[in-house]
Amino acid sequence: MKRFVLVLFFLLLIAPLGAFAQTGIPASSFWYTPTSFKAGDTVTFTVLVYNGEPYETAFTVLLQDGTKKIEEQQVILAKNTAMPVRFSWKAADGAHAFTATIASARSNGKVLTVASAQKNAVLQTGAAATSTEGKITEIQGVVKSKAGTILAAIDSWRVKKLAVFTARKAALKSTIDSTDATEKLNSIADSTTSEQEDIVPTQKAFLPNISPLVYLEFFWYTVLVFVFSSALIFYITTGLAAFLVLKFLYARFV
């Protein structure tokens, strides 16, 4: 039983990986709220768009009701990031069938073919969600909306941290490279002095006193950049770390 609970925890933690399986609109990443409405109500459609390309990608996201265009939006996503794109629609009477589509996607100067059309049909405006199935559908829409927003916020934080870690790694690398270059200059100076003892010795370059901790810090930031540079690796690592913590707490207190 304990093992089953731990496996369940782990599966829940890595669930976000499914949302970022492919570039475009991943499966089950299109929803609307509220799911019950009448003519004149404002309905919000949310489409989760993911860029799994190694370059920044520009997307044109199109929302349609049947063959009728409702609205399109252009978004630009950094590599390995996701963003919820929201549309507003004033409900009209009649039957509707909504589709979210990537009308175009361009990355690194190339046109991409990506995961696109996701359908989410409403049979009739004004139909109340009074049945159990209707209520479940409404709850699913709310949960998807919240989950998509949370995942997008997490990914935005990941990208911001990646920029900080990358800058720090570059600064450390510059310090280490400068030290290595100075050591080479000193080696050349020693060689020149030993070969020309009667000549005024070549002046040595100043060798900064670099701490071994700098190398450890550089290694640490290299690992962080590696983990944060990919959404897949980030969620796997985070999920595994959380799983180990939960496993420890479960074994300790349960």
Poorly predicted spans: 4-20, 127-131
What string gives the helices and strands in order?
A: HEEEEEEEEHHH
Helical residue percent band: 40-55%
| Average pLDDT taken over every residue | 76
Major pleated sheet: 5 strands, antiparallel
How many beta-strand runs?
8
Q: What's the number of helices?
A: 4
Main structural class? alpha+beta
Percentage of residues in strands: 15-25%
CA-based shape? elongated
Distance linking N and C termini: 12 Å
| Cα-atom radius of gyration | 27 Å
How would you characterize this protein structure?
With 254 residues, this protein is α+β, with helices and mostly antiparallel strands. Helix content is 46%, strand content 24%. The chain contains four helices and eight strands. Strands 3, 4, 6, 7 and 8 form a five-stranded antiparallel sheet that branches. Strands 1-2-5 form a three-stranded antiparallel sheet, covered by helices on one side. A hairpin with a 2-residue loop joins strand 6 and strand 7. Helix 2 packs antiparallel against helix 3 (212-228). The chain is elongated.
How do the helices and strands line up, and which of them pair or pack?
Blueprint: H1 2-13, E1 30-33, E2 42-51, E3 57-65, E4 68-77, E5 81-90, E6 96-107, E7 110-111, E8 118-122, H2 132-195, H3 212-228, H4 231-253
Helix pairs in contact: 1-4, 2-3
